[in-house]
Amino acid sequence: MRLLDSLLCVVLVFTVIPSDQASGVVVTSQGQGSSNTPPAGCLRRCGNLTFDYPFGIGSNCFRSPDFSLTCDNTTQPHRLYLRDGITEIVDDIDVSSRNNWLQISLSHAIPMKHGVSTYNMPWKAAGRAFTLSYAILNITGCDFDIYRLHQDTNAPVRLSTVTCPDAEITEEVARQSCNGTGCYSIRLSSVEAFQLEFVLHSRGALGTHRSSLWESIKVTSAYAEIRWSIVDRPTCASAKDDRAKYACVSNNSTCYDGYGTQDNFGYICSCDGGYVGNPYVPNGCSRDKDLGYNPIRQKDNCQQLCGNISVPFPFGLEEGCFARKLFQLNCTNTTSSSLQFDDEHQVTYIHINEGLVDIKYTPSYEQEMSVYVSKEPGLYIVSGVSSSANWAVANLTCQEAMQNKSGYACVSSSSTCLGVNSIDGYIGYRCQCLQGFEGNPYIHSGCQALPNNGASMKKQNLLLGIVIGLSGGFGILLLSLSATVLLCKWKKDIQKQQRKKYFQKNKGLLLEQLISSDENASEKTKIFTLEDLEKATNNFDPTRILGRGGHGMVYKGILSDQRVVAIKRSKNIEEGEISQFINEVAILSQINHRNIVKLFGCCLETEVPLLVYDFISSGSLFEILHSSSSSGFSLSWDDCLRIAAEAAGALYYLHSAASISVFHRDVKSSNILLDSNYTAKVSDFGASRLVPIDQTHVVTNVQGTFGYLDPEYYHTGQLNEKSDVYSFGVVLVELLLRREPIFTRETGSKQNLSNYFLWELKARPIKEIVATQVCEEATEEEINSVASLAEMCLRLNSAERPTMKQVEMNLQLLRTKRSNSCHVVQDNAEEKQPFLCTRAESKYETFSISLGGNSNSESQYSQRLNSLEHDF
After folding, report:
1. What topology does CATH give the domain 621-827?
2. Which of 192, 439, 528, 659 has a CA 20 to 30 Å removed from the CA of 563?
């Protein structure tokens, strides 16, 4: 079993094969391929590798010359190349899904020559359709400096020096550590071309050493892959305007904007959920009748434990013990409970009834986000904001599955069938025990009645006994009432013990110790009891819910001292993460910044800890920017600049002014709250990471919100302060264009806001792109300044983005210039020029108008202000 990551880490080996090599090499035609339908008889295999249109070998068998392939059948096994004859493809090309990554292999050897001290190794993508998304290159040799030449100016940038080893070791041994002695490793990402330069130091005569390290420079790759897309149009929306050349021609297919360089995004096609095949040819996507699930174990006495991890059916460790290849696992170490899908993905727990598998990524692959098994349908869903993968047992609807009795998975009599969906559509079905039952729905009699079902029956019998007692006599009534009192007391004792158990499990003693040892923390942080928060929220009344997010649910509450708070119930936290959670609470409670939501404390008496924040009354920036215009309120350009500057200042404080750096990891307009004075408050640290002040980045599982997610972090898993800068750049674009981060165009297609902004910025003047209100209130210089700042924040290479300090300084400088120009206009009363900086709509004026008009149509903002009074 093998997992293909949908993002990064592939094997890239640079092997040079001349384009005019000898006979036996099948060479593609350089003519233009058919735009939609390849002719019959086109090759679809090279040795043991398969591919499909838009790729092809032979005249008109490919969509465009970029997709022409070459098969070298003089080698065993045969080798498949892109049209440059250099970039070797080392795995099947799957065109049915959104995984538009190709595993490739390149290598290059440079022999040393007498009198020559400088050598070059260039590489360029085989066409506009391709981008080198990620590569780790190992450079072996001896005694030279490595430079990378700037793509435009050819100016050299020194990367490192490769020194000679003390002993004469082989290249293979040098590559094992690749630490600068005999070998050095470099990383590249999101490039269409690069050029390396090697400058030798002075050395003796060649040929005096036995190892080739002294005789040549070799560039090979540990990991890399290229990304492809259809680039005759920049986006799906523009491609659909020209139906004659539109690539997604199959029914039941969908178009998605691609990720490319800033000059070329392109698009890709994918079969819809539940369909397989080729979306690039007519009728290429067909319904997938997945019959690969076998509900009967073929072997008795299957091993079902790997250390302390249970492996229930349909999963299994041995042949004949799993229901399909997709569910085969490997117990590599029973002592450490190491349960693997393969080398990259480790299983830590299987939630059989919930349809979840907890996944831990090995250190080299922590950026990976998808689970895929060769020759099996894609039945695992990993969202990118969670380390748990949802799964289905077969790519069938429940109705289709139940028609095939011999292959139906839900064999327990107390189980039911459920559909599994992802953001891309329907995935398949899974099974679940009926309400009141628990266990394994995939085995006969696997779902058993819950113990509290019996307790419920006892309670009913108790009530019946009370009725009989009342009719039988006053004495029996007293006895029954006494029994009830004792039962209530017993239940309260059980609850107290359970809360105490959770308090200890959630490291309450550790937090108390942290608080008592820190004078500042003890003044600011409180450990609330569950009873405190139940009273504050009226037992977590659903009407108190302020919102639901990717990290939990937020309630509005009023504490006993009349403080209004927001109480967050987070989703499940792994037991191993509790100590980190407590440390974050202790540190965040000490953060004191006027533009960061204040953390008052937490409650540890529940299974998942509760966080208590200051309540912010006027909602989020997202709600105000994107709410219906019928609300009668909009932010003025002055408000937008101030809120942006305040949020930028808060993020700069988190990055560099606090005692420990905090990378927010989920910056978005819905996490910028506004108080009653419309002052910005950055909120929601559920995804944040604490980083030592001397550390530049951390490697994490990718979390965030699509539309705001930094592409470099998404592809490398390396979180740094510039990841927040990218997300903040999207917020700036929201303020300029007043569009959501993923918005629907007039054609009905979905569009990524940052892609749209960067593309339109190259095509037409900025004043034609921004919202009408912005054009009316802001000067052209101000619009250009904010647009330029947003463009810098959105650069794909994080090193080219500004820091949050620089962003804040630019915004504050812009506000100062605007304020000075306002004073000039005000002072020049004789000219009677319009006051440039007055609000287009004052929030006070808007409330006055709303309250003075129809009493049944108050704005949502005045309702927010009045709700606080009603609560008190």
Report:
1. Transferase(Phosphotransferase); domain 1 (1.10.510)
2. 659
